Amino acid sequence: MTKSVLVVAAHSDDEAIGCSGTIAKHVASGDQVHLLFMTDGVSSRTTIGSESIKRKSSAEMSAHILGVTSSQHLNFPDNKMDMVPLLDITKEVEGAIERISPEIIYTHHIGDLNIDHQITHKAVITACRPQPDFCVKEIYAFEVLSSTEWQTPSVMTFIPNVFVSITEVIDIKKKVLNSYTEEMRSPPHSRSIDNILRLNAFRGSSIGVAYAEAYSLVRLIKS
After folding, report:
1. What is the pLDDT of residues 184-213, one digit of tens each?
2. Could you list the residue range(s) of the whole structural domain that residue 92 is in?
3. Which terminus of the chain has fewer Cβ atoms in its 10 Å neighbourhood, N or C?
């Protein structure tokens, strides 16, 4: 039976780093995957120029490679989402949930260093406060290199307890990462393609497979 899946990410490229392998597996299984991006990911930079257009083009390429059902871009201020009332952000997430009726949501870890990641997580959890007959049954938090591991170690450390083998779709993940060449850095930077794949290899070795993506389980409702 096919499922409806919603990925809520602060910036386009977060989905590529954190859960693109898992998205590819959902699509291959016939599930409908929807992407919701909260900011343009570049407006906080000193010189924007055509960066916003390039970033959106990269996101569209990523969505095409993954074969997702839909992709929506909101316009909250990049790296300033804490300046917007949480209620306003939550309403946008609620609107997406109402339209899509997802059973599964993937979003950021609450302990990420990036403020937009934190606010996005809070908005998702607020929008998913338990209600009778609510559609969302599973919520998972993914890790994003250059944010999750940069937080102060004692502050809500990311502790994965769900692992998804992505060995059979690792080539798709590589293509998705390469669609964001402007956002990737050279090794040994944390957000380099080499390092992202090394993390996936490490997570895979934790469960005895070649590559895996790791998640922190936020909610799981079993009937």
Report:
1. 999 999 999 999 999 999 999 999 999 999
2. 4-220
3. C
